[in-house]
TrEMBL record:
Belongs to the TRAFAC class YlqF/YawG GTPase family. RsgA subfamily. CDD domains: YjeQ_EngC (cd01854). This is Small ribosomal subunit biogenesis GTPase RsgA. The gene is rsgA. GO terms for cellular component: cytoplasm.
Length: 353
């Protein structure tokens, strides 16, 4: 069993997952990791296993009970059908794009999040703050990776701007095409470590993956001269094995990154604003024109940037709205489930009469 656990460690297995096993699990089941999710099934891999399996069908009416990339499953050793989804160490999720309220799972069991931006027009503080809120909520280490350092004479200006977003935030500036430049990321890509990449289209995520993996696994496209942006080339979330033994997950550019259930993450990213808000005269202060507002006083004094306050207001309102909508939907689903169970119970009673 010790040898099997050691082999599993190559795929990101650790004591967190080991503690969830029952005494006979390694006899009756095979632990595998979800490498990719398709409409027709799941691509999974583990020691001696690399195959496509049928979709996992959970028993709970819970959107989070559906496997996503990075998850660990226990497969029946005879049929290779999924039997159990293991508890996650971390989970990235969002409200799905569009007008619906469905929750979309992005990735599970990630150790480090590379938040990729570039030293050109794509650098966007508000977008970085969104990704940081996701990382902090999931308790995943965020690292800002600034690419295309060769396209500017002052890459340090972009690095300083990024570092201001969160105390102690790690920022790396590099040329994604140069292996020597990318070597600064090696510590986060060691054996069994899982790294995810997020960032808008055209910032060089695919180029970075190719350099980290040492192979041109992903097609890349050149930058358009008119707007400094590349054309997006990745269409599915897939785990890639790295030469150093780690795993790297690319997440396609998400045009509508709607925040949901990330209140704690937002409070950490905007801790300076939150601390001030707690000093306001009124507990329900909206920080707009109320007397005794410590937040507005800080803006007037020049100790809080007015644009940062605007970004906090926008993200906090969005998160609250989406979380409330999601809670309402879950409540409706639970009510519907109870109604169905009641109808079936009544029908069984009638049939038994």
């Amino acid at each position: 069993m010790t040898s099997q656990i050691s082999d599993l460690a190559d795929f990101g297995w650790n004591s967190f997952f080991d503690s969830q096993l029952e005494p006979d699990d390694l006899v009756a089941t095979v632990p595998v990791r979800v490498m990719a999710v398709y409409r027709g099934g799941l691509s999974v891999a583990g020691p001696g296993v690399d195959r496509l399996i049928p979709p996992f069908v959970g028993t709970a009416r819970d959107e989070e009970a559906v496997p996503t990339v990075g998850d660990w499953l226990l497969l029946d050793r005879e049929t290779f059908r999924p039997r159990r989804l293991l508890q996650r160490k971390s989970l990235f999720k969002r409200r799905a794009a569009g007008t619906g309220r469905k929750l979309q799972l992005i990735a599970a069991n990630v150790d480090t999040l590379f938040i990729v931006s570039s030293c050109n027009q794509d650098f966007n503080t508000a977008r970085l703050e969104r990704y940081l809120a996701l990382a902090r909520e999931a308790e995943v280490t965020p690292v800002i990776v600034l690419t295309k350092a060769d396209l500017t004479d002052l890459p340090e200006d972009f690095a300083r701007a990024a570092a201001k977003l969160l105390p102690g935030l790690l920022v790396e500036v590099l040329d994604a095409r140069d292996p020597d430049s990318v070597a600064c990321l090696a510590d986060w890509c060691a054996r069994g470590e899982t790294v995810a990449l997020v960032g808008s289209s055209g910032v060089g995520k695919s180029t970075l993956i190719n350099t980290l993996s040492g192979a041109n696994r992903i097609a890349t496209q050149s930058i358009r001269e008119d707007d400094d942006k590349g054309r997006h080339t990745t269409s599915a979330r897939v785990l890639h094995r790295l030469p150093a033994g780690g795993w790297l997950l690319d997440t396609p550019g998400m045009r509508e990154l709607q925040l949901t259930d990330v209140k704690t993450g937002l409070e950490e990213v905007f801790a300076d604003v939150v601390v001030l808000a707690r000093m306001c005269r009124f507990a329900d202060c909206r920080h707009e024109a109320e007397p005794g507002c410590a937040v507005l006083a800080a803006v007037d004094a020049g100790t809080l940037d007015a644009e940062r306050l605007k970004r906090w207001r926008k993200l906090a309102a969005e998160e609250a709205r989406n979380t409330e909508n999601l809670a309402e939907r879950r409540a409706r689903d639970r009510a519907f489930g109870k109604m169905v169970k009641g109808v079936m119970r009544d029908k069984r009673q009638q049939d038994g009469e």
